[in-house]
Amino acid sequence: MRVPRGWDGERIILRFGSATPHAVVFVDDTEVGRNKGGYMPFEFDVTDLVSAGGTFRLTVAVDNRLDNTCIPPGEVRELPDGRRQQNYLHDFYNYSGLHRSVLLCSRPARHVTVTTGYEGTTGQVTWAVAQSEEGPVRIAVVDKQTGEVVARAGGGSGTVEIEDVTLWTPGVGGLYDLVVTLLDETDGPVDTFTQHFGVRTVRIDGYRFLINEQPFYFIGFGMHEDHETIGKAHSNAHMVQDTELLSWIGANSLRTSHYPYSEEFMDCCDRHGIVVIDETPAVGLNWMMAGGILDSGGGETYEEGHVDDRTQATHADEIRRLVARDKNRPSVVLWSIANEPDSTSPGAIDYFRPLVELTRECDPTRPVGFVNVMFAPYDKCLISDMFDVIMLNRYYGWYVDSGDLQTSEQKFSAELAGWMEKYRLPIIITEYGADTVAGLHSIYDQPFTEDYQVAYLEMNSKVFDECEAVVGEQMWNFADFQTKYGFARVDGNKKGAFTRDRRPKAAARYLRERWTSMEAARYGRRDHRAR
Ligand code: BDP
């Protein structure tokens, strides 16, 4: 790598969008640092090791082994013949490598936190700059649509008002830039950086999830960063294709199941008004799931060597880093701190309580949730009372009562009534789905056919429409995706509305019909034809 000649006297930073799951970074022969955790950015100051105008060799060793101190956890087993085998309890392939941008940049260490509100037509923007070198600060707020400066102020923190504010609106977007200029003692600019933000509010009121005080109904998918050939790597072309398909089908939201997505993708959600449930990589924290499918090897979830204090420390770190990365994003309206953890074992209480508190401390402005697994219904789950919303993954008609949609409908409705009664909180259905082989048809309700997937979705839709507390449906999954090998997976998970190469199954047509005409989803609808 060559360091630009003009960077003499500047601080030089190496920044990684992610390295999955662990990395050791060298500049020439010197190790500059290590990173654990696959879905978060990290950076190293390499000023002392490189020189402006010179070149250096950058080497990154990426390690794909997961153990139970990792989030997500895993275990490398030693087989009798000496081979080592990676096992893990999550249902997506453990792609590893450098999946996101690697940048060499020159700048002082700094960032800004922006929070917003509004009163009538006046927006309030509160900012707080953190910088490594103290000095005066000037800020300007620029309307990204018009390019006009709508407010100016001085100081490392404060609040400014925007007259006739454009609210960040689901389905539409609406961004401003906060332009921060760091000054020297003579008020000369040292550095300028820009942070985009949106003015919007989020609040829960009884069964309602309010964005800008309007009831919002989540429509869309749990997704994966997953493509043939590039695995979990980010590509702008695929990002545009996926977000255009979301728009085509009438989706207004998604969950970043089961890890934080690339910053490029999140920027795109901010720009286009796609509402995001932002999830940590805490998936597979469950030794109580059927050993057959997930091969847990037995034992309790919350015990030494499984999910223990070390796992919890890594989990806490993932929460801190996720909030630090995404706190300024208007698209993010809810944190999901785990997917389908064991929430029926008593150990779950002590494990989760500090993590929920930590999330609220890191971000007092957004609600906090976790995604509940089917084996932990309202009368068995021990942790749901710590959270602001109920998020449920339910597979009636697939993993239970497979092929019997009538029984499924009754059981699902009864369970929802139980949640509604006990918690009196909004319910978002974060997963429901059926594996479907594209092109397979039957005149009967036969699992794995496109016809069954549609019938299954129709049944689910009916259940949601009849439950007042349901404020969202995110089907599992947006597209077929790769998983680890196992007898329950034929060339990966086939629950996609789209195939892995993004062709619509019959289910996609069904969902488009439903979602583009739903009255409940009027606020936040993205009109594909209008764009
Ligand atoms: C849920 C998980 C998800 C799986 C899905 C499935 O949250 O990761 O892919 O089930 O079985 O338990 O398809």
From TrEMBL:
An annotated Gene Ontology molecular function: beta-glucuronidase activity
Any Pfam family the entry gives: Glyco_hydro_2
GO BP term, example: carbohydrate metabolic process
Ranges for domain Glycosyl hydrolases family 2 sugar binding: 2-108
Domain Glycoside hydrolase family 2 immunoglobulin-like beta-sandwich: 131-200
Chain ranges of the Glycoside hydrolase family 2 catalytic domain: 202-519
PROSITE patterns: GLYCOSYL_HYDROL_F2_1, GLYCOSYL_HYDROL_F2_2
EC number annotated for this UniProt entry: 3.2.1.31
Top EC class of this enzyme: hydrolase
Keywords, alphabetical: Glycosidase, Hydrolase
InterPro entries with a match to the protein in the record: Beta-gal/glucu_dom_sf, Galactose-bd-like_sf, GH, Glyco_hydro_2, Glyco_hydro_2_AS, Glyco_hydro_2_cat, Glyco_hydro_2_CS, Glyco_hydro_2_N
Homology family: Belongs to the glycosyl hydrolase 2 family.
Name used for this protein in its record: Beta-glucuronidase
Organism: Corynebacterium marinum DSM 44953
Gene name for this UniProt entry: uidA
